[in-house]
Amino acid sequence: MPSENSNQKKKILIRIGSLRHGGAEKVLITFLKNLPKDKYEIDLLLNLGSGKYLAEVPDWVNVLYLNKGEMITTNRPVDLPKKAWRNIYQLILKKFPKLLYKYKLKNKKYDIEFAAIHGFRDEILNSPLKDSKKIVWIHNDLRKTEFHNYTDDEIRKFFGFDKILVISDHIRRDFENMARNEDEKSRIQRIYNPLDTEEIISKSKMEQSEYDFDSNRPVFVSIGTVFPQKGFDRLLKVHKRLLNEGFNHRLLIVGDGYDFENIKKLKTELGLDKTSTMLGFADNPYPYLKQADFFVLSSRYEGFPTVLYEAITLAKPIVATDVSGVREMLNDGELGLIVENSEEGIYKGMKRFLTEAETVSDYQNKIVKFTQPFSLENSVRKIQEIIDQL
């Protein structure tokens, strides 16, 4: 229950799986790093206390976790007992939340409980704290997610939250169409992801020694978590097709994820080890983005791919599949080439960039003149206002 003392810090519980990698995790960290520490008392509860972004959590944020250690992505016999124990333990705490709140959270009373990604909907809505205000931050088109395509009935459950933060107009419209009255509509808030453009520009100037850029061969770079959603399999096939047609170029994929070994194997099977590189996770991907000739988004679906704003910030010509958020971010194609969401679409877009220097130059000039419609300060302030008004 909110404190009667207006000077007392608001107590907030934030839940997310881990801080291993990914757009939502990076956005959360950027948000936390720019919050005033004198206004809030934040507990960040992770299912797995690991991740590259863990070191970036501000020291005033209290980090808790259900299990510790790196994510287990294999099914090796030696790993199975530990993997099974983690799953069982987390399932028990999900099914019996009173145990979690009593023993892990020490019966602490929170003013706000915050699901930082849609996957923690049930954990927050089933909280034993009935007086807390509840927020969910939705980063994906729920009709098309990695493991669970949400039905209308499933999406309706999100209206149990006091505020539903959505990151694109496409997602906002979907939720508004599901709202049954004005009260429910008022819970939906379209917000821009916090993005620190100054940090991006500064970090892009740092030296990197992991990849040798060759001025004689243009490089397409793609950055993202290596999930099937990102379409790296079809990107490799397009790369192969263009090489077979005599278009000399290279491909650089920056990112890690559970599908990494499968994509790496496909790269070898296609005979692309000399022309394509899978760099893995990079703490700082911006030097690669800055030095590459083109950025390509090959995703099958997205929510609001923040990486496009990073590419715009570094004035990189963009080829992107027509998925949620892309038309909004690229001004309906003014700031980048939007292609059909298919292997053929990616092929035509990349080929066009390799053959039409004037088109590339035109996009680059428009990006340089473009004023981004948001700032880090505005994004953080908007979320703060939502928190403060609850």
Please write out the topology.
Layout: E1 10-16, H1 23-33, E2 40-49, E3 62-68, H2 80-95, H3 97-104, E4 112-115, H4 121-125, E5 133-138, H5 152-156, E6 163-166, H6 169-178, H7 182-186, E7 188-190, H8 197-204, E8 219-223, H9 232-244, E9 250-254, H10 260-269, E10 276-280, H11 286-291, E11 294-297, H12 307-313, E12 318-321, H13 326-329, E13 337-339, H14 343-355, H15 357-369, H16 376-389
Helix pairs in contact: 2-3, 9-14
What is the arithmetic mean of pLDDT? 91
CATH overall fold name of the largest domain: Rossmann fold
The count of β-strands is 13
CATH homologous superfamily assignment of the largest domain: Glycogen Phosphorylase B
What top-tier CATH class of the largest domain fits best? Alpha Beta
- Summing up helix and strand content along with how strands pair, one would put the structural category as alpha/beta
Q: In the CATH classification, which architecture of the largest domain applies? A: 3-Layer(aba) Sandwich
Total domain modules: 2
Order of helices and strands: EHEEHHEHEHEHHEHEHEHEHEHEHEHHH
Output the number of helix runs: 16
Q: Per DSSP, what share of the residues sits in E-state strands of 2 or more residues?
A: 15-25%
* Helix content, binned percent: 25-40%
Low-confidence stretches: 1-6
What topology, given as strand order, has the largest sheet?
3-2-1-4-5-6-7
Distance between the termini: 11 Å
Gyration radius (Cα, Å) is 22 Å
